Amino acid sequence: MSPIVTAILVASNLGLIFLLMTAPLGLRTVRMNRLIAMDRERLWQALWPLGSDAGWSGEILSAQPLDGDGVARIMLSWEGRDGKPIERRARFDDVVEGSRFSMRVLDDTALDVSFWKDYRETAELVSEGSGTRVTLGQTDRYRGVAFLVFRYFAMRRELSKLQRWAVTGQYRKGGWFEHPLSQVGFAVLSALILWPFFGLHLGGLALAAILTSVVALHELGHMAAFRLMGHRKARMIFIPLLGGIAIGGRPYNSRFEVAFVALMGAGFSAFLVPIVIAASAFASGEGHKAAAALLAALAGCAALFNIANLVPVWKFDGGQVLRQICPGPVALALASFFLLSAFLAVGWRAGFSSSFLLATGAVFSVLSLLTMGSGVKPRHELEPIRTVDRFAIAGALLAVFVIHGCGVLWASAQLFLA
pTM (2 decimals)? Predict the structure, then answer.
């Protein structure tokens, strides 16, 4: 890619990351309504957390009032970090039996109290003909549009499923977005979006498809780590242009778990890169030049993508690993400086210009600043990492970095020879 195209791609990603994760949006309310073919009283019993049909979706396992001041304890089906259902204390205001209520979350066993500081949820039911007009609302303070968009689609899905339950009496889990076929479609869309950046020809399409495959393999490593850490559910979501994200089935329980899951994205590919390099060399020796070039491109893309993910940016895998294994801010700063310097040194040995590497370092610094502190604070501190695990993860991080660094240098040498 030319420097201009590279700059456009980087600027687009930085702008999207700022918009999705950091842009201050203030207090926002998402409100949606739908006409449901069911009488108001029956719907009230479903939407009111203390109602007889409150478990219609399987989300609420049980609910009971704690006092006469509108406070209740709600047991949810979502798994907490200990694998047990999450418990939540909520206060209900403006309750009009059969018509409306407002709910604030006081605390729960998964997230810190500060997460719920500005959150408010409302529901209103109005009879309309033979059905009921249901209006749901959620108010919160947002930084970045990602969570705002998520809540919009979550509310839309809830109303759709409520309508289906009202007609059939059954609740169907899941939806089209996380369906495997939909995710394959998003992966194809991601490759098509990347295609023009590599050139609108067959080689450009091959590179776009290779990069998309590399992202999928990286996220597959995270998913495998989630399963090894006891998550009964794990899934991958493709985000066109930005890549993909692996999601576990419950909150993290320990610092070791965070470090292990973060490292396994690049760690999984570290097993594959040497194999692909060997396969490329074998194909070249057998005279299959096209196959050798394709495999070399796959090895180079995988190595470069994964080593870049190990850079100590706040939300990147490398940053997450270092924050768990470094015993203090001084050690974290030194480790971050060492890792970033090693990454730039690999880039210099691979033939990248000094100006490009300086710009890359600046971009990573901006990324770290944009995403710093954007995570969700848990209700309780994570279990500390043991010293032996700290050194084991540090050794694994170094090994994975070296493998991908060698992959980048090998691929750059192949490009030079070509």
Answer: 0.84
